């Protein structure tokens, strides 16, 4: 199997997201880093790219140069990853799709709903893959839940309750730390703080597992630290197209929670729960029966759960390999195989529509609003 | 220490609540069951009372007879417990308060807000104790949290997130079981199902730990099983007088959750969480520090946590002894000691006001409404 | 149902064990404290007994006086509990059995194997009940495991692994604290420290659940704090009559463990585990299947598990109610019902034989020795 | 940073261990698979190697051919990994060390103590790295424990209790399955079954964390399934050079345990515990204080724990990345940096000595025996 050529934007030296993507792309031997524009400081970025094995010609100063250099390159890139600051995702993603590249974009895919609609249109027109990095959906046991729902194993889904709450922004004395502050500043973060940052992962996962989409929502936002304009705590109630009731809590001031992303899915004939801090188990309860601990790697799991696990039962696989699973699916899709689980531009668009809907609802004291992108109504 | 005379309404043979109260009253040797009207079937009730050691003269056919027989009894009852069906709590409680008895009433104290206001007035006029059985608040580690908040150990409380959700009514094929059905039938349960049944425990605890009261709320109710009129799933957002943000989820269709009552309290300088299924621990995290596991019985706990624990660290104490702690405090209060933690008629009234407010909000699509009883506005 | 008359030795004001027994005896309304010699300080003991409702005539200065006063009392005691210091258990228990009383003796029942043999003989001759307070065996879910084994639900038991380890004696700077020191001083504690104190609970439970007895053992003892003569850490391997392999670790220097008593039982067709700090669940795994969480109070549990639980599923019941379950069974047995689960003098004797065997093995570098009392070989 | 050339033996298509090593070597971009002899079926192995990107010339039929082809190769291999069946480890490792290659050998490094001594001698003479894949020791939080012990944070280590027990060989009806049977057959597995397979990981970790070595041990082995010659359950008590007491239980018939490798380390001033199924936390308790949950990625961890973690706090990292950490350290060592944590040939030798000592002890009913290799006595 030939390795695929991969290019990257952002993820320069010292960034957190860069290593996660590089590990994700390389871990299973699918991709080779062939080109990159890794840093806002052009020279630093070029040097760093070369230190990672990129040849000098393909170590670029910025995305525009890279587009120029790569669009007609004989050893064409099979995939580019966009991991630059949020506000730049749209233009880079759009430009490379239009130039005929497959793209994996970090979330949020865009800053507005219109931009999201535009990406969806461009992706469709290009015939290329535009994936968005909702990587939690690539954990084997999340795929297991999705396939159990699809297979009717818990009946119609009545209720989904999901939380993505941490406490790492709970220290008011640290609130002016630039690494924290920008998230609550509309000039940098856009219309939403915590919900746009973490909540949309949870909302995506609700849809992903349920195999259904959010239709309407009602939001209650709070800024519990005075200096913040945007919310650091959000509660969103929602309804899905099929009637499923949803409850989503996302906070960054929940001191003591590390990375409390969890989801509970309750159907007519069973319930399931999963938590990102112990991602290799699902607690499944058939109605009237006992809770069973399902383990990644156990025999009889769904084909997706089995395919995306690398080591035997009870050898935990963690977050970086969930990211790697996105790349596994991308490699397969690029090679022409069907991959149903990949989060795509439509998902990125729906997230953005939900963010704007939640903001709209919150300023109207929780009024129920349509959560769908205009084009999906 | 002389034992106190105790009388009981309801809790007849085969009931669940009867044994919990008898154990609670007797466990620490404070009370002796001296009188009772235990069953709607008068003869069965009288026989059962006698089997429990009540003399024949004080085994009554109904509460009216008991009132008549006891009001001038020379060996007067020190406390009566009302554990009859919900719709009868008001009249029995009122009558016995007016006759000068101390009362412990099961929740809900009343069926309407007006009745609640009436009980508060009557209790005040009588000078007697009217307690309501919010027994979870009497767990040692819940008292610990309350005293930590009062002592400023987590700073101002920003956020409370609490859940009281189970899955025991999640089986649609069992929904017509009379033991389940009445809870969702307005003719029997009143205006609210799951929120009135379980949610108010969580709401009381939020106030109890925060040392603050709920001012306003917004509710989203759902009846996930078609035949139900009242809600089996409720989400309530609230704000306390001091600005604390609150989130409360209560469900009876959360298949796989047994009795998932838990609470998380997040302040400026720390967070805490407690769960009723593992009630002897509190997970406490100072801001910027590690999560610490606090154990019931460890040295250095607050005086209330220490006083209400009976056995050494890591010997678990459970639900029946939380009920017993209510009786411990009642005995002390009857003997003239000050007991701050006892849930009283005002708490029962506030719960009823919150139930009506939540219903009012839910039918108006989550409009924010005042959650306070009229007399407390 | 008439209450039974109960007397107590030891458990004076401020003791830990006294409240646990009083709660245990009173919680379910079976016993009334009618007589007692509660304190080594005769006057304090008499005053305290009266404060607990004992009439002056039956509040005694010591056990000899109580024997004299009670042996021909018209309102005879149905049960006496021996909760005095360990070295006195033998003589009090023997004297009262000989006088025709039913006895519940705290563990260890005796200080030597010969004394244990003597108690077994005396109990048999008297026709009275001589129970020993292995109270952990009375948790509902422990009874559940015992009945599952008896019913063949996990096949022949291959292996039992049990731990009873805590860290409360791990502070060398506190080792001279009299409350700690005596446990490691042969003059006060006898031949064994931690194994005799905690280990025998675990060994009893292994036999209790397996329905089998320990035949031989090999021990490794360590005194990890220099000033100690007796062991503060013990590992005991054993074999049961039916061939089951056993492993038992008991430590008092395991800093961070609170009260880590747990047991794992592995059979041909399934495994189970239970822990005393979360006593209302059993984790059960059928061979080839998933682990299931069994909950106290769920439908379909064994009759013993159901009978000894008081409140609904997921309302935890703790240590004091396990003690109370011993009294529930004693009351039933006194009233002439059959109760298979009560730990009796034979169990107390077996424990003492195992303690001496372990000491004998430990001083011979882990030589395998017979663990049975002479009369049971 | 130039990538290092890496070669592999074993790990052919469909093997479990191959993907773990390839991911481990590639994940952080340190190594490129440049040569290999991957399968006992020469043609299959060569084809598979090429599918993984190895050029045809360096895809070999067997290790002898590879030695021939690589020993004078201009683009010399920086590291070879030996992941063939256990009985071949010795000869391949020895041959490649002698030819001047760095080697990572799967455990067990050899089948006898003499072979182990030989490898240690050869490695020393060669000046090359001979590492052994005790990969659990490369988890960030295991390194954290090691550095805390080294830094005196829990004082002198008194006691280590470790378990590596699972239930995957607990089904007697599956005991003749060839994938299971060979492990209990001396002709294939050597002198020990479960202890040699899993127990030595735990024993290595005890030494690794304590910074001390095992001096003597006493073992109790059991074959709980009749058809087995070698043990499927082992208890090993040990003493370290510095006096630390050790207890190690390893079982493969513990039905319900998935991969229960855990370790508890108790010192004079604190205790710690870690479990491989939740590897990103350490529970640490200072003497007299509360248990604290230490999280991978939290600020203030030791330099090793920080260096070997890739993503932020509470993003779990799992088993494949522990393997990858071995490769991270190998890459560094190959590049001339000092890496203290790498498990080396001496560790492999000590394990083999401990296996033979345990077997020797077990057949002598638990006699205490020297556990050290002859050359280390």
TrEMBL record, chains A, B, C, D:
Organism: Roseobacter litoralis (strain ATCC 49566 / DSM 6996 / JCM 21268 / NBRC 15278 / OCh 149)
Protein name per UniProt: Oxidoreductase
Pfam families: GFO_IDH_MocA (PF01408), GFO_IDH_MocA_C3 (PF22725)
Segments forming domain Gfo/Idh/MocA-like oxidoreductase N-terminal: 5-134
InterPro entries: Gfo/Idh/MocA-like_OxRdtase_N (IPR000683), Gfo/Idh/MocA_oxidoreduct (IPR051317), GFO_IDH_MocA-like_dom (IPR055170), NAD(P)-bd_dom_sf (IPR036291)
Coiled coil: none
Signal peptide region: none
PANTHER family: CONSERVED EXPRESSED OXIDOREDUCTASE (EUROFUNG), OXIDOREDUCTASE
GO terms for MF: nucleotide binding
Limits of the GFO/IDH/MocA-like oxidoreductase domain: 142-272
